[in-house]
Amino acid sequence: MDLNPPEGSKISIANDWGNPTVVVPPTSSFMRYPGGLFLLFWLGFWAFGFKSTVEKLWSGPIQLFLVFWLCGWTLGGIFALMMLYRTFRPSVPERLELKRNTIAYDSGVAPPQFNNYQRNRSPKDQWRSAFPKRLRLELDRSQLQSLRLRETDTGNRLTFDIGSDRIEIAPTASEVEREWLARLLARRYSLPQILDGTNSVQTGA
Fold first, then answer.
1. Burial of 26 by CB count in 10 Å (0-12 exposed, 13-18 middle, 19+ buried)?
2. Can you give the pTM of this predicted structure?
């Protein structure tokens, strides 16, 4: 079993409690901190607009337009605060601890990618990409049967299914790194195939 990541890869192999653990570092974004500073500036403008509108509503007759505008403005401020928290929140690498019969999966915490919008993804997927939840799962062999390397318009995706949810592994890795990881998991857990469209990654390859 090849535990050596591709040459030049930033993926590393740790040894946690005697089990090899694949560590996938998050992708750093140059726009992360400039984007955070822009959000801080925008929130200052937001606070000024919010205060002015509340004062108008408080001191004069109720204007429905201002009420609706204030509701939308409030939602915009909440969204900006959530993005600001994500921007300056410390990053945590993604980890897959390869146990004997299971995988302990931790999706980690990735920094926001301000240029990560993809037109082929649904609004639900776009929201999950903007505000991902940190997942900690123990995957058994039956759950790993759903592991697939899928070709998309934007490159391959390594995924597995938990109920009705499709979880993407190593989204910050390169296509070559995901192919290597797919072969590693397929061989270690004796998965028959990891399908990739009309191609396949064989466990004995």
1. middle
2. 0.73
